[in-house]
């Protein structure tokens, strides 16, 4: 890319407009027309997580231009941001104040947006120790099927009016409305961080996970991969240093957790023809009787599985352990026909009722989660 031609550089004012743009009214009008015509909409931001879920047939409604930080109070640890804002841009703003998103959400691409983080509800390695995306959502602005922009929740935890409905938007994949803005609680960055690799058998690692879970240790990530237990220790410098000295092991490449979060480790290589599964399980679940290769994350509560095992049999095995399985490989690339675990009849009934209340004409990402939703 050429940078020496002065006239190709935007002015500071133009750059500011690029970073702060409100197109909510245009989005509302588009939704009003779609609802009146009963036209399905495929809601997208950066579209880096399009693989996650079922394909949506509909007119594209892009929120990529609806961007900007609308409010930030570092002292109160609260930030409000439009949903089209690039996730990386939000993280840069927080980093400048020594703060971070506690849930450590994956990007899966440079164009990843705040709205995509909210819609999918995916969290990174820090999730068991800090919380999920849902835990940090304080409020949202949502365009209803009538094309009205409504506000739920607030910017402080004490204001809980509509809070639960706001949290329902997390992981709903845009099936309940168009989220235009979200208010989030953020966390201070730790003063010290150190990664450890300890070679040991899987059984020993799972035992350590269970043992350490009962102790006040500065652990913010724990995984088992390639014959070794991997740890991230974060907190005060003295606490981290003392724990490193007590546990021993080898220093871990600082980029390991980023690669795990973004699925860039060799384990996630797309050339592997076997579908990629995410198994969500109760804490301290022993190894399951499943075929394939497993990477243990979240101290074993989240497991990545490369397997060509029959989807129904795999899900039955995971369900017996009290968990559920999600297929990350799209159906057209060899993945399961249904990416998400089928809902129990009673649960499915409530999902349909909620969808009917918030989206009676079925215009918001229809079929993204399940065929009937």
TrEMBL record:
<dbReference type="InterPro" id="IPR016169">
    <property type="entry name" value="FAD-bd_PCMH_sub2"/>
</dbReference>
<keyword id="KW-0285">Flavoprotein</keyword>
<dbReference type="InterPro" id="IPR016164">
    <property type="entry name" value="FAD-linked_Oxase-like_C"/>
</dbReference>
<dbReference type="GO" id="GO:0003824">
    <property type="term" value="F:catalytic activity"/>
</dbReference>
<dbReference type="InterPro" id="IPR016166">
    <property type="entry name" value="FAD-bd_PCMH"/>
</dbReference>
<dbReference type="InterPro" id="IPR036318">
    <property type="entry name" value="FAD-bd_PCMH-like_sf"/>
</dbReference>
<dbReference type="Pfam" id="PF01565">
    <property type="entry name" value="FAD_binding_4"/>
</dbReference>
<dbReference type="InterPro" id="IPR006094">
    <property type="entry name" value="Oxid_FAD_bind_N"/>
</dbReference>
<feature type="domain" description="FAD-binding PCMH-type">
    <location>
        <begin position="11"/>
        <end position="189"/>
    </location>
</feature>
<protein>
    <submittedName>
        <fullName>Glycolate oxidase FAD binding subunit</fullName>
    </submittedName>
</protein>
<dbReference type="GO" id="GO:0071949">
    <property type="term" value="F:FAD binding"/>
</dbReference>
<keyword id="KW-0274">FAD</keyword>
């Amino acid at each position: 890319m050429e940078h020496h031609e002065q006239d190709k550089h935007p002015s500071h004012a133009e750059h500011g407009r690029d970073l702060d743009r409100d197109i909510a009214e245009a989005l509302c009008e588009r939704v009003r027309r779609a609802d009146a015509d009963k036209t399905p909409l495929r809601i997208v931001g950066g579209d880096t997580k399009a693989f996650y879920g079922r394909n949506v047939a509909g007119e594209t409604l892009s929120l990529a231009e609806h961007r900007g930080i609308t409010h930030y109070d570092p002292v109160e640890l609260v930030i409000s941001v439009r949903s089209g804002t690039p996730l990386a841009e939000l993280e840069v703003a927080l980093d400048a104040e020594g703060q971070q998103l506690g849930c450590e959400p994956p990007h899966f691409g440079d164009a990843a947006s705040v709205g995509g983080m909210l819609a999918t509800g995916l969290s990174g390695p820090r999730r068991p120790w800090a919380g999920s995306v849902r835990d940090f959502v304080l409020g949202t602005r949502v365009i209803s099927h009538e094309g009205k922009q409504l506000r739920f929740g607030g910017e402080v935890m004490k204001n809980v009016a509509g809070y639960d409905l706001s949290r329902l938007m997390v992981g709903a994949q845009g099936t309940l409305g168009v989220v235009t803005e979200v208010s989030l609680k953020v966390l201070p960055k730790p003063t010290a961080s150190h990664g450890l690799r300890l070679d040991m058998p899987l059984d020993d690692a799972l035992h350590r996970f269970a043992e350490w879970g009962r102790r006040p240790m500065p652990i913010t990530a724990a995984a088992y991969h390639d014959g070794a237990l991997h740890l991230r220790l974060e907190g005060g410098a003295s606490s981290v240093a003392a724990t490193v000295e007590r546990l021993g092991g080898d220093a871990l490449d600082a980029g390991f957790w980023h690669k795990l979060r973004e699925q860039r480790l060799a384990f996630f290589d797309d050339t592997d023809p076997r579908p990629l599964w995410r198994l969500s399980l109760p804490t301290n679940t022993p190894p399951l009787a499943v075929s394939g290769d497993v990477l243990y994350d979240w101290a074993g509560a989240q497991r990545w599985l490369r397997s060509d095992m029959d989807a129904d049999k795999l899900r039955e095995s995971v369900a017996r352990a009290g968990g559920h399985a999600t297929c990350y490989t799209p159906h057209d690339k060899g993945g399961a026909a249904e990416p998400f675990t089928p809902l129990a009849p009673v649960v499915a009934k409530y999902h349909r009722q909620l969808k009917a209340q918030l989206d009676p004409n079925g215009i918001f990402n229809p079929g993204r989660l399940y065929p009937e939703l």
